[in-house]
Design brief:
This protein has 262 residues and is an alpha+beta fold. It contains eleven helices and seven strands.
Length: 262
């Protein structure tokens, strides 16, 4: 028995390396997850509080130290409240649901082409639009209001939905599993105070939704005719046909490449 324990201790450094590697990987993934979001600012705020806490302890500021000590004793609860959206997105990545799960590679390509064609057509005609594409997180919580349509993705149909005289042109069009499922959906608006005031309701709704889930939102501005893509609460603006197709392929086609090889 002693020999087994001694043999195990000889390889202890391997487990230590594995432990350090796993922790480093987790920290790296967390940094990628919060990069470019408000979570970075909140982390900096917590870091400042921690520095003040240590300084108050070293400087003998007992009242301030007592206050911060009580605050930091509930730091786990504070982190859960502050970073609930980021934690939700991180947990979602544990299990993945491909956007094109039930479609062939050819059908996937056609869906992408029709979507890009519709957005470019609406941009040229200054028709405002908001299209939401479900990825890994279900959107059922946001579909209580809207009209069920269940149709294949077609550029002409998308354009007709967002025509100014259409009764459902103000809401969002939702695409799930490669099909248009609902239109006229109302989405939560972002509460981020740093968002430019030049952005309208469609852009704010796209940012607000993608702050909560991992969906991809495409916005066509009625005022400028510009196309934007929003994901993770971050917006990429002024896209043309080529750049829009490139962005969508990067966001939606990880499974398509696998199917093509098969």
């Amino acid at each position: 028995m002693a020999g087994i324990l001694e043999h195990f201790q000889n390889f202890r450094w391997l487990f230590d390396l594995l432990d350090i590697g796993l922790v480093a990987f987790i920290i790296y993934r967390i940094i990628l997850l919060i990069k470019g979001t408000r979570a970075v600012q909140m982390l900096l705020g917590l870091a400042v509080i921690l520095i003040v806490y240590v300084a108050s302890q070293l400087g003998g500021l007992y009242t301030l130290h007592w206050l911060l000590d009580n605050f930091l004793s509930s730091i786990i609860l504070v982190i859960v409240v502050l970073f609930q959206n980021d934690i939700r997105r991180a947990l979602i990545h544990v299990g993945r649901n491909p956007f094109f799960a039930d479609l062939s590679y050819k059908e996937e390509t056609e869906v992408m082409e029709e979507l890009v064609k519709a957005c470019v057509n609406m941009a040229n005609k200054r028709i405002g639009a908001l299209v939401v594409i479900e990825r890994e997180t279900g959107l059922k919580d946001f579909l209580e209001v809207g009209v069920e349509i269940d149709a294949r993705v077609a550029s002409d149909l998308i354009t007709s939905i967002f025509l100014p005289y259409s009764p459902i042109h103000d809401g969002a069009l939702v695409i799930q599993q490669g099909r248009m499922t609902r239109a006229g959906c109302f989405l939560p608006l972002t509460q981020n105070p740093d968002i430019s005031k030049a952005l309208g309701t469609r852009h704010r709704a796209a940012i607000g939704l993608t702050e909560l889930v991992d969906a991809v939102a495409i916005v066509v501005s009625e005022e400028t005719g510009k196309i934007s893509v929003v994901v993770g609460g971050r917006i990429t603006r002024d896209l043309d046909s080529t750049s829009l197709k490139r962005v969508l392929k990067r966001l939606l086609e990880p499974q398509m490449a696998k199917k093509k090889k098969k």
